[in-house]
Each structure stands twice: as structure tokens, then as C-alpha cells.
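Researcher: Structure prediction, please.
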Amino acid sequence: MQIKEVTQHLEALAPLSYAEDFDNVGLLVGHPETIVTGILVTLDTLENIVDEAIENNCNLIVSFHPIIFKGVKKFNGNNYVERVIIKAIKNNIAIFSIHTALDNALHGVNNMMCEQLGLINRKILIPQSGNIKKLVTFTPTAEAEKLRSKLFEAGVGSIGNYDNCSFSSNGIGTFRALENANPSFGEAGITHHEKETQIQVTYPKHCERKILKALFENHSYEEVAYEITTLENKNQNIGMGMIGELPKATDELEFLKHIKKVFKTGCVKHSALFNRPIKKVAVLGGSGSFAISNAQRAKADIFITSDLKYHQFYEAEGKLILADIGHYESEQYTKNLIVTYLRKKISNFAIILSDKNTNPIQYI
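Model: Predicted structure follows.
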């Protein structure tokens, strides 16, 4: 098995095109056609993680956080980033990062947090916009059903809990084949009138290459007429954070203690309590201060995230509880998620969960 086959599975879970613009995801070190001897999954790629990969004969590290985030201009081993890269290259170890692509995935980081808390009725807290596209094409009416079916197979037409969604209208198309043309219908030099069906379908942007391949391979025209537009509609299955409900309303203080236990954190920093039960819970793994207002608008009773600054706790505004559980703690189960997923997709292969705690923050 080659590295690219492993990363294709990972990109099916979390398409890299959905990562945030500031991020650095994908294969950061190594060649995609390298044969994989074993896979080590970790939250962070540190020197001891590379050592762990070497000990376990793993030449591919799948890391949540990217080791290369800002530009690296030198490889002198003067800091941990340079040392990790040098050691990985010396030992022919590839490094793949998935980061905010998995943050934005429906079954990613935030869904895992919800799983740990037992939340039900989950949905994305901040759905992404600009990642739904619309394809409009024109085909001979007699061939419309076949083309539509092939496009559905390629990934178009899914809207929420529905699939095979499309809109069609019939009309007359005209064209004249010029001297070097090889028309499927009509004759060169003569304007041809053809009964055509216009097909309109939507699709997620990461499927575009596959969809256009299906369009061109299953359309009989020499020159395929089509239009692609990007919609502003929000994709309810892609985005940051998640909100759900507890099966039963819980006392505030008891729930905070429960959070501390579930996420195995040294402390939970939180805003003022209100002496009212917790039912609706918003979560966002990693640094989530930007989503405080979103959690408020969603009428969450509590928002669980990390890296909140002093003055940001005031932004609770008496509307919800803000709970900072720590960056590592909020994302710690992500590596378990990745391992479980890969073991389902790739059977009888060495996929190892790193046993190293890479949290740089300690508590007393």
C-alpha cells in the first residue's frame, strides 16, 4: 500500500479543501508513492513521536496538528520543528496532517467531543458557506436519464437527508458544426436543432473533479456545454463546532465536574454560573473564542472550548457559561477517532495509536 492510498481514505473523512485558509494540511514530509510499512497516529509530531515511529517500524505519521505551520527557511536543528523534520527525513518517515479539515468534518473533532459527552440531536454550530456548487448542463433529451444517473453516482444531488436531487427542463438547443468538428448529431455546416434537457444539480466542491470526469465520459456531445457556479448557501454538514443536547438536564456544577472527568483536565476555567440546569451544549475543539457569539445565538446553556483570554469570559454576557477545558484536552480523542476510522478502512495493517502525551501544559 502506498502513502497516497492511506491519505485518500483520510481525505474521504475530511476533505483537505475544507481546511481553513490559514492552515497547512496534507502530506508535509515524504512522497505519496512510498510503500507504507506502518502508520502511527498522534495529536502532535514531536521528536519522541518520530522515535516511537522508528521503534514500531512505522514510516507514516498521521498527525492532527501540522508540524510545519509557519514558513521554515532553515533546517539547522535550532528548534523542535527543524529537529522533527530533519529526524523524519533521515529515517524516511512521512508526515501527514489533517488539522482543520477534520475540525470542519461532520464526523470529526467536534462530533468526537459530543460523543464523549453523550450529546444527542447534534448539528454543526457554524456551517461553512461557499463550498456548495451548482452544475448546469444540456444533453439530448433521450440521453438525459442516463447522464443524470451517472452524475448521481459521482456525488451530485445530495441535500441534507435527501439524495438524487436535480431539476430538469426541456427545450430546443441549436448548434452548427464547423469544418473540423465531428458532431454526434447533425451535419457540418448546417444549423442543427436538437431536443435537449437542461439538468441542474448541486454538489460539494471537493467532488468537482470526479463529477466533471463523469460528465465528460457520459455525454455524447463532442463539445459539452456546462456552467458551474458557487452558491452562498451554507453547507449544514461542514463547519466549525457542534451543538447538541444532553438526554436529561443536569445541574451546572455537576456538569462542570463531569466535563473535568471526561476530558481528564487539571482544571476547568469557567464564567459565572446561573443556578439553572444545563441542557443545550455547544463545543469547539481547540481555540474557539471566535464562536462565542455563535453559541449564544444557538441558545446554548454552556460553550465548551479552550484558549479563552481573561476579557473573553465577560462575553458570556449572562447568556451562557463559557468553559475552557484546555487545548490538548479538547482534542485528545481525535487520534482515537483517526485510528478507529483507518482500521475500518484498512484491515490487516499496522495502525498504531501513539501512547505519548504531547500536551505542553502541565498542572499542579
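Model: The mean pLDDT is 95.
Researcher: Thanks, that helps.
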